[in-house]
């Protein structure tokens, strides 16, 4: 990895480079995606099946697009029993964490007849997109379905691309079944997003779409936003390790590579105050690259978006981490919890040398669907709040309204909204 002295100029250059990975820069594909979305919106199942055959090489019809209970049962026989047990153990942790995020309706009343409150209502139907292709992610199935289940969503509909043989990866099906999915459909890409957003003869329309995907999925979610809600438009994965001279270079290198292996556009950054650590991490990376299976992808990722930033002070390193606002942030310093209190911007913060990023990806419980490309400055991880909506409750008695009714009329008159004022006035004629 390239070693760069951290200053205002280098920090700006790196931020500019990282932003090029944002889905907002995928303009070349926008027209294609918009055409797919519009075609599915107009022609529904026929367009969905045509695009599935074109892009996935799989011919489907209304009788075969939904995964059957028999296919679900068959999936259990194709997955190692040990993996099923691991999925179940992870589910316990993920469910327990998200249970603590639940919100409840509340009401506050006073003696003069005023009742105010907030009614929390789960969404009726949610669509979960699960990618296929380069890799299979049953862990993402758990992370997207569990918070929806905890929130009390009425129906969870999952879509995922089929193989050429018309089958869905069995590990994905097992994870979906264990997490509590209601329906699974064989559909992927922009056409699946459009089907969820507008509905087809086979796939029901949903209120919100969540889940990661490729460029076409990201742009399709952007195109349908407003017709439905979405979680976010996720970019490529990223990790930042904040470390001082006490960090183990072998741990740091291994953790950086754990994200670089996702794809060529993944970002891996070390910010450190120790030049000795920087050199040692580079040596460890060279050693790991000789044995890791996805070394070609890792090498291209590090070449494009891998950096070791040398800071003069720990405070300077912390400020750089806050500016980059990484999806995953690991802290390996002498007093890691004190450093953690100074972090303002990160999707997930891993504190201490044994709290490595894959722990969060698979098992600890917090959600691994996280803000990317600097959006951790204003976005949060996927959670139960993403699957509920809130309604305000207002109830006034005549006795409560009377002392303030003239104030409200005065406000309405100032805004020249006389019908507003009249609605108050008629109650006291």
Automatic annotation (TrEMBL):
The record's EC number reads 1.1.1.23
One GO molecular-function annotation for this sequence?
A: histidinol dehydrogenase activity
Q: Keyword annotations for this protein?
A: Amino-acid biosynthesis, Histidine biosynthesis, Metal-binding, NAD, Oxidoreductase, Zinc
**Name of the protein:** Histidinol dehydrogenase
Query: Which cofactor does this sequence's record say it needs?
Result: Zn(2+)
Gene3D superfamilies in UniProt? 1.20.5.1300, Nitrogenase molybdenum iron protein domain
Pathway connected to this protein = Amino-acid biosynthesis; L-histidine biosynthesis; L-histidine from 5-phospho-alpha-D-ribose 1-diphosphate: step 9/9
């Amino acid at each position: 990895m390239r070693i760069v002295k951290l200053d205002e100029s280098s920090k700006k250059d790196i931020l500019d480079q990282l932003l090029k990975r944002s889905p907002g820069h995928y303009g070349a594909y926008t027209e294609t995606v918009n055409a797919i979305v519009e075609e599915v919106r107009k022609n529904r199942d026929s367009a969905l099946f045509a695009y599935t055959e074109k892009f996935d090489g799989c011919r489907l019809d209304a009788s075969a697009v939904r995964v059957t209970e028999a296919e679900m049962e068959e999936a259990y026989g194709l997955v190692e029993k040990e993996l099923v047990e691991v999925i179940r153990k992870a589910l316990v942790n993920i469910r327990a964490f998200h249970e603590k995020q639940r919100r409840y309706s509340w009401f506050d009343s006073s003696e003069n007849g005023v009742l105010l409150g907030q009614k929390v209502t789960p969404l009726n139907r949610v669509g979960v997109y699960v990618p296929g292709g380069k890799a299979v992610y049953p862990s993402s199935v758990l992370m997207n379905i569990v918070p929806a289940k905890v929130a009390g969503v009425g129906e969870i509909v999952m879509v995922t691309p089929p193989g050429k043989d018309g089958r869905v990866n069995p590990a994905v099906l097992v994870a979906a079944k264990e997490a509590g999915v209601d329906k699974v459909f064989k559909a992927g890409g922009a056409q699946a997003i459009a089907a969820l957003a507008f509905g087809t003869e086979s796939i029901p329309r949903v209120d919100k779409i969540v889940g990661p995907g490729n460029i076409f999925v990201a742009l399709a979610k952007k195109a349908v936003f407003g017709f439905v809600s979405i979680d976010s438009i996720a970019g490529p994965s990223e990790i930042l390790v904040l470390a001082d001279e006490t960090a183990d270079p072998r741990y740091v290198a291994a953790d950086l590579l754990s994200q670089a292996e996702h794809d060529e556009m993944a970002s891996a950054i070390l910010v450190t105050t120790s030049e000795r650590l920087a050199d040692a991490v580079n040596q460890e990376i060279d050693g790991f690259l000789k044995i890791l299976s996805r070394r070609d992808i890792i090498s291209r990722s590090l070449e494009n978006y891998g950096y070791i930033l040398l800071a003069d002070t720990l405070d300077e390193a912390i400020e750089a981490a806050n500016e980059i606002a990484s999806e995953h942030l690991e802290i390996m310093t002498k007093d890691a919890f004190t450093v953690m209190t100074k972090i303002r911007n990160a999707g997930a913060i891993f504190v201490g040398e044994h709290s490595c990023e894959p722990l969060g990806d698979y098992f600890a419980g917090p959600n691994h669907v996280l803000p990317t490309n600097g959006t951790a400055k204003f976005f949060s991880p996927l959670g139960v709040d993403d699957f509920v909506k809130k309604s305000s409750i207002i109830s006034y008695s005549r006795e409560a309204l009377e002392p303030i009714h003239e104030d409200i009329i005065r406000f309405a008159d100032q805004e020249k909204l006389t019908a507003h004022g009249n609605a108050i006035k008629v109650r006291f004629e």
